[in-house]
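task queued by scheduler; priority normal; single chain, no ligands, no partner chains; default sampling; output format set to structure tokens
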Amino acid sequence: MKVAGERGFEAPREAVWRVLNDPAAMAATMPGVESFDVQDDRHWRANVKIPLGLGTLGMTMNMEKTEEREPEFASLAIKGNGVGAILSMTTAFNLSEDGGGTKMDWEADVRIAGPVGSMGQRVLQPIVNQQVQQVLAALDEQVRNAAGGPTREPGDAGAGGSGSAGADPPSSDGPPTHAKDVDDYGEPAESTPEAEPETGTSGADEGISPLAPETYEADPEGPTTSTEN
């Protein structure tokens, strides 16, 4: 599946570029990161836990910077391996000056093989979109820090949270929250759907658990025994 979008930052392009090319800053934007190792300036490795509908999927992800043109363009190739899934992803971004800030155009092509991939795009697309929005929200925070802007306190809404950033929790006695007080994280990611296969069934339809490839049987409905008078 392919996703793409754009993001605006109230920071110079050089500040955004530094964050996007800082492994430590990028590790802080990835949800579910358990460890992050920098092998060299072009190769990184992360152990992450990706939330799925039936639990979480542990995966080791190897990232390689395949191209860069400072301070405007870079691309990454990411390969991940986990129990029941093999991930292959390419992603790229382009930075352009936008008044006193920066506009980032980004795109990603995500492919998942194995039992998890057999869940189908209708199931995986919302999961991918949620992960993308969490990464972008966390990236916005990292750019604010790099540019010397205001940061959120621990009690404020973070990446993937709800409520207005930098605001106190709502109170029934306080004034209502206005739309202008809420951070705008840009337009939602656009996706390009891939055609579903015309024949065959997904792993979920066939009774295959994405986290355990073996076939399982659904619990029978109703009582399994009967009694007679």
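post-processing summary
- DSSP finds three helices and ten strands in the chain.
- Residues 151-185, 196-229 have pLDDT under 50 and may be disordered.
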